[in-house]
């Protein structure tokens, strides 16, 4: 996990066409188990990997590439997801800049999850872009390449459990570890909403 951040004052808002819409009503999405989400996954683009992660993370829901309001008692916590391509990381950059420009509703961005686009080492170009764009996120996590994701249907995989640290063994260790860290952050922010960790990123 990487920790990088630029001061919000250095951020320029993206053009309107590069921004995601903000919901003004409750988000109808639920977790794969049909429960209310503890945090939302916002795909920066189509094919980012949100459907796979939502299936495996028992407390996450796909907000449909739209910022939740949030409305009422909805979770304000959002995790951006992007594929490790030039286009995917640029789309994540636009959403991060939208958030820092206070154009993303009342959400709190926990960080950015990138998903490997190919097996093997990350290319120099992608490493450069991730270093640049990831600087706008408090935290950056990486899901490595898993051949089984493209060889098997989602129903072949289990889900991590409601208790932090538990996982079905069919869920890759890196995927389960990221959810563990996300749920830990959510609990920290909920217990200390006015503290350092509880302020919007």
Overview of this structure, please?
The protein is α/β, with parallel strands linked by helices and 201 residues long. The chain is built from five helices and five strands, in the order E-H-E-E-H-E-H-E-H-H. A five-stranded parallel beta sheet has the order 2-1-3-4-5, with helices on both faces. Helix 2 (86-100) runs parallel beside helix 3. The longest helix has 19 residues, at 173-191. The protein is globular. The chain starts with 38 loop residues before the first strand and ends in a 10-residue tail after the last helix. Residues 196-201 have low confidence and may be disordered.
**Can you summarize the main beta sheet?**
5 strands, parallel
Helix content: 25-40%
Averaged pLDDT, please?
Answer: 88
Unreliable residue runs:
196-201
Give the oligomeric state: single chain
Strand content bin = 5-15%
DSSP helical segment count: 5
The count of β-strands is 5
- Give the ordered list of helices and strands: EHEEHEHEHH
* Overall 3D form: globular
Alpha-carbon distance between the termini?
17 Å
Structural class: alpha/beta
Gyration radius from CA atoms, angstroms: 16 Å
Strand neighbour order, sheet with most strands: 2-1-3-4-5
